[in-house]
């Protein structure tokens, strides 16, 4: 016995230590489980995929500027079907009176009423991500209760919560299926509780430690636990089968546990490296959501292995008696005939596989990838997506495109607004230069003192004095002091100057004058908050085009060309369409890189694992072939595929 202990391998010594110190590991995992269970609530989930775009992309730069310089008030397009125009008009007036609703756009044009369907464009006082705005939208929906209505809006929409609910259902289904399969394939019914304890612990440890990253994406948060379930159960099955084999060979529970663990550590570690290599390749994407998914899933694999290596040996010892008492006959049918058949067809199947491989390699490259979740062919679409499709079919697409240009030239902004508004797909154009104040007068129109006095409702002499004072502070209008009636100043500039002087107490307004100025100020504030920042101006266009596609890209190019005529390269386009375009460009580059790196990583690992040059090539070719076959299915069924689905599935499939 002394000699045996001296000649024990390091792996056997490690296994013996883990099994013998199992009670200490119980305490460690119990404390870790409790800590991580509490920490899950500290994990911040980010539901904005655009934050993971590279910093140099147009969308990311534009969104950063808009966050810094503008606010975006909430709005909603709400369609009511099977209603007369008059009844819809009465409803629009009721909606407009609700607290928190700033305006309702509705008229008898084709854009707002046709075929017994009305479309209300509702604007709110609060920002689109403000909970109070969502509460106002709920009041609007309650007002419409009893009508056949369809709200199309981002206000109050929580896609991460919707995805989390769906993934919870998927997880429940997967858990039931896995339990049934385990009961069917196990040698003892008591193996199943051991598996479930190991997986639950690994899942909680992974979710509870995500707080170390600060923020994780809602996609990663939703899919990680399902993918980890598959991996953790796989590792546990390998170890448990080893344990049952050693028991069948006559070893007692302790020795069987030690022997099985010493072998399983090597097998499971080698197996996990291929999966981790695929995830490491995913982490090298330009689109940083790849890193987000890769690092969390890699951590999940590590925790799964730790639970199998350190917790499961103790559980097998703890439940060794019940495991033996609940043994059952093998429920898996013998399929030797299948293996024999494959061997007999060994000269026929490889050529067929190669032909299928080539065909599927070509077809899979024709897979229609989409980069906006709204465009994906989901079988179970959420209510908000069904509502948006209903509105789009009846009143056309409402694709919003924002254009950011340097602040400073109202004239150029007006030209851009007019030229873009003339483009056929564009239905709405909004900017400071086309906000009507009164009787065809725009917010940025240049006005003389007399015109300003009439519009603002102030005395002509006060207007002249105001212009002269304004000229003292603006070099461009320095000579205005001599004869203010000869000069015209943009309405927005002189009006802001009036408000500034009023706030300082230099100008006193009373009665109707004060009321008129307050009304103008309210209109001005709505425009300025959303359309003018400290250094940039925003123009917003709505077009009847889909989020993605050749038609949309052509429109984006036209809008960009028009804006660049006046501002050169200092133009940024922002919206779901530019977001999808940037994601597509990143995906195209990342896809090739990930495929090459994954194949290289896996081949190197297999080369050292099998110590053979030919076998790694054969294995990689087999798995890559299965990936091509898998992604040929969407092509043959004429359905599109959300690009992240490809990245996750191909990486995990290669790791398998």
Topology:
Blueprint: H1 2-6, H2 10-20, H3 22-39, E1 44-46, H4 58-69, E2 73-81, H5 85-96, E3 101-105, E4 113-114, E5 117-127, H6 131-143, E6 148-152, H7 159-185, H8 191-208, E7 215-217, H9 218-248, H10 253-283, H11 289-318, H12 320-325, H13 336-344, H14 349-364, E8 369-370, H15 383-395, E9 399-406, H16 410-421, E10 426-430, E11 436-438, E12 441-442, E13 446-447, H17 449-456, H18 460-473, E14 489-490, H19 491-504, H20 511-531, E15 536-543, H21 550-567, E16 572-575, H22 576-610, H23 614-630, H24 633-636, E17 641-642, H25 643-655
Parallel strand pairs: 1-7, 8-17
Antiparallel strand pairs: 2-5, 2-6, 3-5, 4-5, 9-15, 9-16, 10-15, 11-12, 13-14
Helix pairs in contact: 2-10, 3-8, 3-11, 7-9, 8-9, 8-11, 9-10, 9-11, 10-11, 10-22, 10-25, 14-23, 16-21, 17-18, 22-23, 22-25, 23-25
Report on the structure:
By secondary structure, the protein is α+β, with helices and mostly antiparallel strands. 62% of the residues lie in helices and 12% in strands. It contains 25 helices and 17 strands. Strands 2, 3, 4, 5 and 6 form a five-stranded antiparallel beta sheet that branches. Strands 10-15-9-16 form a four-stranded antiparallel beta sheet, with helices on both faces. It has a two-stranded parallel sheet with strand order 1-7. A hairpin with a 2-residue loop joins strand 11 and strand 12. The radius of gyration is 33 Å and the shape is elongated.
């Amino acid at each position: 016995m002394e000699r045996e202990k001296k000649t024990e391998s390091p792996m056997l010594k490690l296994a013996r230590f883990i099994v013998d110190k199992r009670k200490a590991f119980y305490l460690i995992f119990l404390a870790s489980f409790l800590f991580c269970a509490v920490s899950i609530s500290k994990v911040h989930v980010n539901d904005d995929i655009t934050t993971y775009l590279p910093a140099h992309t147009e969308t990311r730069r534009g969104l950063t500027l808009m966050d810094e310089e503008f606010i975006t008030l909430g709005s909603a397009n709400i369609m009511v079907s099977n209603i007369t125009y008059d009844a819809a008009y009465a409803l629009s007036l009721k909606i407009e009176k609700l607290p928190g609703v700033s305006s309702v756009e509705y008229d008898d044009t084709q854009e707002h009423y046709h075929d017994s369907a009305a479309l209300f464009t509702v604007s709110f006082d609060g920002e689109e991500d403000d909970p109070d705005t969502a509460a106002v939208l709920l009041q609007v929906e309650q007002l419409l209760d009893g009508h056949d209505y369809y709200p199309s809006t981002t206000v109050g929409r929580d896609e991460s919560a919707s995805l989390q609910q769906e993934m919870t259902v998927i997880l429940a289904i997967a858990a039931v299926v896995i339990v049934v399969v385990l009961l069917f394939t196990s040698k003892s019914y008591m193996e199943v509780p051991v598996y479930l304890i190991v997986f639950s612990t690994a899942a909680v440890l992974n979710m509870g430690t995500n707080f170390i990253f600060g923020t994780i994406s809602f996609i990663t948060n939703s899919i990680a636990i399902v993918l980890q379930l598959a991996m953790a159960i796989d590792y546990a099955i390998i170890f448990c089968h080893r344990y049952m084999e050693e028991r069948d060979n006559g070893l007692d529970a302790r020795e069987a546990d030690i022997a099985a663990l010493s072998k399983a550590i090597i097998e499971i570690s080698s197996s996990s490296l291929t999966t981790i290599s695929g995830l490491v390749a995913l982490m090298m994407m330009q689109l940083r959501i790849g890193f987000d998914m890769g690092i969390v899933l890699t951590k999940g694999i590590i925790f799964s292995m730790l639970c199998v290596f350190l917790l499961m040996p103790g559980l097998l010892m703890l439940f060794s008696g019940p495991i033996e008492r609940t043994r059952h006959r093998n429920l898996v049918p013998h399929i030797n005939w299948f293996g024999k058949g494959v061997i007999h067809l060994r000269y026929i199947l490889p050529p067929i596989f190669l032909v299928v491989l080539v065909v599927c390699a070509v077809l899979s490259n024709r897979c229609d990838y989409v980069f906006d979740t709204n465009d994906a062919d989901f079988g179970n679409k959420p209510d908000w997506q069904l509502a948006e499709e209903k509105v789009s079919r009846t009143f056309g697409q409402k694709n919003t495109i924002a254009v950011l240009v340097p602040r400073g030239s109202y004239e150029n902004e007006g030209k851009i607004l007019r030229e873009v508004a003339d483009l056929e797909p564009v239905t709405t154009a909004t900017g400071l230069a086309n906000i009507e104040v009164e009787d065809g007068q725009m917010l940025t129109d240049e006005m003389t003192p007399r015109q300003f006095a009439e519009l603002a409702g102030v005395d002509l002499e006060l207007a002249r004095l105001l212009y002269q004072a304004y000229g003292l502070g603006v070099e461009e209008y320095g000579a205005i002091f001599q004869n203010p009636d000869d000069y015209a100043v943009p309405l927005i500039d002189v009006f802001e100057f009036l408000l500034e002087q009023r706030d300082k107490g230099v100008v006193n307004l009373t009665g109707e004058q004060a009321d008129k100025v307050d009304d103008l100020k309210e209109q001005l504030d709505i425009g300025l908050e959303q359309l003018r920042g400290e250094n940039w101006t925003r123009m917003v266009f709505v077009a009847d085009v889909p989020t993605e596609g050749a038609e949309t890209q052509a429109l984006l190019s036209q809008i960009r060309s028009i804006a660049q005529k006046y501002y050169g390269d200092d133009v940024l386009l922002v919206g779901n369409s530019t977001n999808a375009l940037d994601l597509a460009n990143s995906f195209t580059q990342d896809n090739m890189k990930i495929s090459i790196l994954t194949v290289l990583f896996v081949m190197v690992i297999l080369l050292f694992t099998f110590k053979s040059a030919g076998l790694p090539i054969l294995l990689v070719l087999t798995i890559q072939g299965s990936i091509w076959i898998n992604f040929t299915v969407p092509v043959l069924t004429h359905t599109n595929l959300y690009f992240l689905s490809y990245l996750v599935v191909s990486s995990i499939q290669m790791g398998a």
